[in-house]
Amino acid sequence: MKSATLVMSGENTATLSVTAPLHTQILDETRSTDSDSTVIKELRSAMQDNLKLRSSKNLTVLVMEAVHLYRSKN
Questions:
Q1: 12/25 Cα distance (integer angstroms)
Q2: Inter-residue contact 7 to 18 (CB < 8 Å)
Q3: Contact assessment for residue 7 and residue 25, using Cβ atoms and an 8 Å cutoff
Q4: Most buried pick, 20, 47, 62, 71, via CB within 10 A?
Q5: Which residues of 13-34 are buried (b: 16+ CB within 10 A; e: fewer)?
């Protein structure tokens, strides 16, 4: 999470080319393993659920903005 924060804090504008790979990496790194305790598994699951919810909302907003920009130029 610290790496993600550092990457995003250095960006003036967050673009899909930066956020998409970062989002995927965070989801990959928060997957539970067999050796995780129950508490860690629950924490990782909650983090994944939160990230997935945020990404679906952000994607919807991004698509709506793209459509608006496209229509305003044509």
A1: 21
A2: yes
A3: no
A4: 47
A5: eeeeeebeebbeebeeebeeee
Cβ neighbours, 10 Å, residue 44: 16
CB distance 30 to 48 below 8 Å: yes
Q: Which pair of tokens denotes residue 34?
A: 């067999």
Are 53 and 47 a contacting pair, CB within 8 Å? no
pLDDT tens-digit map of 15-49: 667 777 887 888 888 889 999 999 999 999 998 88
Q: Distances from the Cα of 8 to the Cαs of 20, 21, 29, 70, in angstroms?
A: 12, 12, 17, 27
